[in-house]
Amino acid sequence: MSVHAANAETISAAAQILRGGGLVAFPTETVYGLGGDATNGKAVAAIFAAKGRPTFNPLIVHVADVAWMSDLAVTDTRFENLAAAFWPGPLTLVLPRSAACKASELVSAGLASIAVRMPDHPVAQKLLRATDRPLAAPSANPSGRVSPTRAAHVAEGLGDKVNMIIDGGACRVGLESTVVDLTTARATLLRPGVITAEEIEAVIGTVGTGADDPSAPKSPGQLASHYAPSVPVRLEAQAAQPGEALLGFGMSMGATLNLSAKGDLLEAAANLFAMLRELDNAARFKAIAVAPIPHAGIGLAINDRLQRAAAAKG
Ligand code: TXA
Ligand code: MG
Q1: Do 259 and 168 fall within a single domain?
Q2: pTM of the predicted model over 0.85
Q3: For the chain: N or C, fewer Cβ within 10 A?
Q4: Can you tell me the distance from the alpha carbon of 114 to that of 98, in angstroms, rounded to the nearest whole number?
């Protein structure tokens, strides 16, 4: 494994690796992805193996252009309107696989649907175009661990399991994309993100959460304990107890680190995973106490990730 700064040469080398069935970790605006050619079943299998990811949990396929959709999925007006409004950007849409879908069945984990997004990061876009294939790319962390928002995080977790890591700096958004299922008459929010349910509803009308509809499809990856540091996480903390680190938000007195001293939710989202990693140090702290984050707007996505981080040690 080697970490390479993103430039024309390294992107072209990475594209060669991907076209040959190898794995490349690359930056997106959300988190780093562990990429492989989505049309190559062996490459997709290698992604599952590298992450230790259960094969019932499907992967997101990344595209550089809406024109690539015709080789993957059946689209509708809701898709067109959402793509026009939010692509490229941190929104993943789940659609029926098309009869001529070129993506390996394994990316869908046996489901009749496929999740697709167009990343808004210049390196991801250049890499997709240079490879000229849709790329399957889950977050580039070992399954069950915190998603990487820096190239160094990828090297730590998966360094010996990828052919190349492209360093594009810190991820701007810092939380994984919003996932919306469009395979049913009523769209369903499968994973909250910085594009909120309200913003999506403004484009396509009511979006269910799945919680209110037992027959609604679930995101197989939304296991309770997903984004887990190795030390326990305690939420809604007003102060640290002895031995705990305090991850603050807003005017948190005595915070070890602060997600956003000015109380900005976008800034907090961008800092969340890197700060959880920094405080996940059993030699220094016995637990991470996290200050309350508002349960509205982007705060819903931040609290979703925090609840998973806390549930792991339930
Ligand atoms: O921001 C992101 O989405 C990042 C970057 C790299 O693009 N990727 C990412 O991938 O977070 P991953 O594999 O860590 O999360 C994919 C999520 C999982 O919860 C998975 O279950 C869900 O999307 N998913 C994928 N395909 C699906 C499908 N066909 N139906 C329902 N859920 C699906
Ligand atoms: Mg993930």
Answers
A1: no
A2: yes
A3: C
A4: 9
